[in-house]
Amino acid sequence: MIVSHQYKFIFIKTHKTAGSSMEVALGRLCGPDDIITPMESNADSGVPRNFHSKSLLGRIYARSRLLRKCIDRHSGMIAPWFYEHMPATRVRQLVPENVWNTYHKFCFERNSWEKVVSYYNWKKFGQDRRMPDFKTWVMTRTHRLPLDASLYFDGETCLMDEVLDYSDFMVSFTAVCAKLNIPFDGVMPREKTGIVPTKVDHHRYYDQETQLKVETEFRREIRIMGYTFSPESA
Fold it and tell me: Where are the alpha helices (DSSP H) in the chain?
């Protein structure tokens, strides 16, 4: 998640949409007063900044994983605390009203059925987790699905000025940078890529029951983006 005062934008990071790559690309171009949240691969790089309060507890909290397990990141003891996949509703609570109302707010979204397969394989291969079969995981682990509407919706209302499609993210990302006068050079870092050994057709993972489950759970994303399962490709 990034709040850039230099370029006047708020970037909400969603799952499996090249968000880490875009965050790295934007982070190196942002100003010293901008808020850039850390992730595992760049926590000690010097790029993340201004994401925690300047109190003593806030500084200790930022360095201590144990303390972060004991104290909720929304706690008034350490607030404000900005973090990686932070929902827009929380950002709205922490930034000044004029920042929220005037900065360009955007995120990226991905075909929901494709995203669920990508997320499943990220857990299985990228994080080396012991995963059940795909159908069992989809049907019984709803809270584990990458339900990103909760990151950029408030109820049924989308809080973004733009929700851009991942399928053409380089074109869309370059266009957003041009709109905001961000000097992006066209070179996109590659973060969290190459996880699955061979390219997979996400349609093959689904039966009618799992297809309908994703359609139900991801109704807000599907509605706003017009995504379909494309059964003719299955």
Answer: 19-27, 56-63, 65-70, 88-94, 97-102, 112-121, 134-140, 149-152, 169-179, 208-217, 219-225
* pLDDT tens digits for range 44-87: 666 788 998 878 888 888 888 888 888 888 888 887 889 999 99
pLDDT at site 193? 54
**Closest C-alpha among 14, 88, 83, 74 to residue 51:** 83
- DSSP assignment string, 2-17: EEETTTTEEE---SSS
The CATH number given to whatever domain includes residue 97 is: 3.40.50
Number of domains in the chain: 1
Host domain of residue 190 = 2-233
**Whether the predicted pLDDT of 40 surpasses 80:** no
Give me 49's structure tokens. Answer: 């900044």
